[in-house]
């Protein structure tokens, strides 16, 4: 698995797939990562950890992603405007 930073809060996340999962033979089926790339309706794409995904509104924009902040190791929230 590779590592990157969450576009929302900046915490280090792992990304499943790629060469690291080549020899797992489907045992994890690509579900081991701690982040996902979210393609928004405004055409932007963001790598986000699951706490940041949960903090976003139903129809997020790039501005919502910019407002994300890390609260602790397990949660994220939106800064007030």
List the helices and strands and how they pair.
Blueprint: E1 2-5, E2 12-15, E3 35-39, E4 45-49, H1 50-55, H2 62-66, E5 68-70, E6 76-78
Antiparallel strand pairs: 1-2, 3-4, 5-6
Organism: Natrinema limicola JCM 13563
Protein name: Small CPxCG-related zinc finger protein
InterPro entries: DUF7561
Which overall shape is indicated by the principal axes computed on the Cα atoms? globular
Average pLDDT level? 80
SSE run: EEEEHHEE
Main pleated sheet: 2 strands, antiparallel
Widest sheet: strand ordering: 1-2
Terminal CA distance reads 36 Å
Flag low-confidence runs. none
* Count of distinct strands: 6
Structural class: alpha+beta
List the total number of helices.
2
State the gist of this model.
Pfam families: DUF7561. It contains 2 helices and 6 strands.
What does this structure look like?
This protein has 81 residues and is an alpha+beta fold. It has one domain (2-78). 14% of the residues lie in helices and 30% in strands. The chain is built from two helices and six strands, in the order ββββααββ. A hairpin with a 5-residue loop joins strand 3 (35-39) and strand 4 (45-49). The radius of gyration is 14 Å and the shape is globular. The mean pLDDT is 80.
Kindly list the characteristics that best describe this protein.
alpha+beta; 81 residues; globular; two-stranded antiparallel sheet
């Amino acid at each position: 698995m590779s590592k990157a930073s969450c576009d929302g809060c900046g915490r280090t996340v792992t990304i499943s797939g790629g060469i690291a999962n080549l020899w797992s033979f489907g045992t994890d089926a690509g579900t081991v990562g701690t982040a996902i790339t979210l393609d928004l309706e405004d055409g932007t794409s963001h790598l986000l950890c699951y706490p940041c995904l949960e903090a976003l509104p139903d129809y997020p924009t790039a501005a919502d992603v910019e407002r994300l902040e890390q609260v602790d190791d397990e949660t994220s929230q939106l800064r007030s405007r």
